[in-house]
């Protein structure tokens, strides 16, 4: 294991802060990517090595299926969220960009005209409609990420939603310790690629520029979106293979030991073909990877690989793990002396610190004071 201070090529936090000093964050470009819509029926038709994978998919897909039984959404006349919707601060340019890329669409009346006011003209949305908070958050790369947070989060019981469980970090590392070959595949703008049926879109309505709009794709801030995305990925990678496959929503890691070269290449190509059938775009590009020869794939898979904030390096015998350059850069930027934090950002930083320390195997007792402060702030908002 390597200590945080031994990382190479880490951006200087002061340089990063200087790059954004004096800039208007609201003028940073909105981070949206062109995607192709997920073929949910193709995913449903895929064969899987385990029956429970398909069962979880059907449970999660109730949230993007019209007429699902049981219906996961509340009965409109019995459970309602706020009937008023505040106008979002999204600029006209951002709105037009999102509409043109298929993320939003105008709410239309029976004549096909955009709705500026509902019939009651009080600013209240009718029964069956639900609001969604739409806002952006700045990222270190000098761009803004679009967040859509449904009001339904407040009235839907998390305990009733499909529960996603992952291997522990130690378990994951142990399974990858002797993996000479590792290849990561990421889905491009995964949530934006998962379409919402038209009949469900009125559950995600917001107001901007004097008119009402609604989401066309899976909301990024919905409690159930993780289950929908993870269920899709699990079905795609659930093939009959002896190699190791780990996933985290839109991240796929395929790994194999020395002597499993043939099985590794076969698994990679099989997963890529299933991704193509699902109509999802990837990074690296799925078509480019499919054109690789066996030798090219194996060479690519022996290089250093970053998965979930940890970098895995093959030293000829085993994979050595350290915090990724990106993780360290975030820590350095968040710990500058003049940095001010809200309770939310403070909690996020503490979580990141805990994650990074876990990688380096440092004694967690050293974090006692930091965790005590974390506990204090948690009590203030709980």
From TrEMBL:
Lineage top rank: taxon: Eukaryota
InterPro entries per the UniProt record, alphabetical: DNA/RNA_pol_sf, Rev_trsase/Diguanyl_cyclase, RT_dom
Pfam families, A to Z: RVT_1
Domain Reverse transcriptase: 118-319
Identification of the protein by name: TATE DNA Transposon
Organism: Trypanosoma theileri
Species lineage: Eukaryota, Discoba, Euglenozoa, Kinetoplastea, Metakinetoplastina
